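Before the break, one more example. Copy the sequence into your notebook; we will annotate it together after we see the structure.
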Amino acid sequence: MSAEPSANALRLVTSFAAGWTRWLGDLVYPPICPGCGVRTGAHGGFCPSCWREIRFIERPYCEVLGLPFSYDPGPGMLSAQAIADPPVFDRLRSAAIFEGAARHLVHALKYRDRTDLAPMMAGWMLRAAETHVANSDGILPVPLHRSRFAFRKFNQAAELGRHLAEKSGRPFLPSTLLRVKRTSRQVGLSARAREDNVRAAFRIAPGHEADVFGKRLVLVDDVYTTGATVSAATRALRQAGAAEVTVLTFAMAVSGPI
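Here is what the structure looks like once it is written out:
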């Protein structure tokens, strides 16, 4: 007797079960817009209003800080900020401006445990990174201090980094960089206070020096504001011999036109 009818029956039952599970899941957790919460046709989809709100960062932009230009100054141009105050990392890339629906996404992931949004956000980050993720030797998230991790139960930067690694095939190094100083929350602090808050806050985990020395690394976080946190983390990586550090975030706070 041929095994083909049994195999077909099994596929039919499996397909039916998967469809039933999706239907039940949509009934309990209906698909809603991640930006405003209105019902949508599919999970992970934005309503038209929120989709129009998202300002993706496209070229032309500063080659170092990734700041979008309001006009095209020509290839390889740097912003005044990058010239006057060069960062310790090699470059910054972000997927979107930190406002509107993009801000809602960041807050939903960070404060409302919406880790289901991380794959979509990581996909946009991978696009924004161009070739820098593909050419890297590893992806590291900006770590949380162990006390804050115990309270929050997950690290939003690690969620984004994990999905970036899965999508790109690059090594994920979540245990390489440690946050050894329990810092205050950065929200509401001035730029100078942020720098003081995270000074000497990071170091390489013992036994992970080879992950960093001579390597091209991508440092992942959810939002870039003043750059104090990723700069402090980059200094730890530089001291350990990193050859190149690209900072990649989902969103970037931009105060005004460039």
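Confidence is low (pLDDT under 50) at residues 16-25. The CA atoms of residues 115 and 147 lie 20 Å apart. Try to locate both features in your own notes.
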